[in-house]
């Protein structure tokens, strides 16, 4: 690594928005409260999300190479783990807490999938507006806060274990890596990613204080909604190796890229399957 690489990295960090640093300070303050309360699962998940996204952003700043295959494996492992975790841990819980009427959980799942799709569409529309915050950071921050809020509701009202939360935030690494690379190509510093990186924990810790009513119908809908949202996010992170996709954008090749994309599709299938298998192994060991 050259002196210029170090200088560019430092400049990229200092070029970030103050809101990122403030978000980190807020997360540190809330973490102190969580430590005193002894809520260790939520603390670990919050900081795992932060380290995954911020660390990947830092790594992308110093990486100068074609990393399409890296992104495919990162997205595939994360989405496979999330799909499996939501299906195994959240869906049965949503059905089980519905008070003898599992349809409430089913309606919640459907609602979560539809709302997830709708919010993704609205977010894409907002991306074309002239916002004071970078488009990439705005999208990631909105997603991080909503995901964190749902994680907090789940962990504040249910005993679901650490595996679920870690699987849910596993996509923060590849998402941060891709976002930092995109920011660098646009001449922006990566430290603005501290906002969405810390946003998961901030929202999770605050929403964990909200108590969901004991009504089976309400709990079934709420936990079903959480399952549906996370299933949507997981499927949205499936690595799509198509012309015009993010994977295609980072290939940096001229001419016909179909052969490379066909090869990457095999990696996409393998990584997604492996992500799901890892969750199965973790569940089998811990049960």
Automatic annotation (TrEMBL):
The chain crosses the membrane at residues 16-35, 42-60, 72-92, 104-122, 142-169, 190-212, 218-238, 268-286. The keyword Metal-binding does not apply. Keywords: Membrane, Transmembrane, Transmembrane helix. This is Zinc transporter. It comes from Halogranum salarium B-1. The lineage of its organism: Archaea, Methanobacteriati, Methanobacteriota, Stenosarchaea group, Halobacteria.
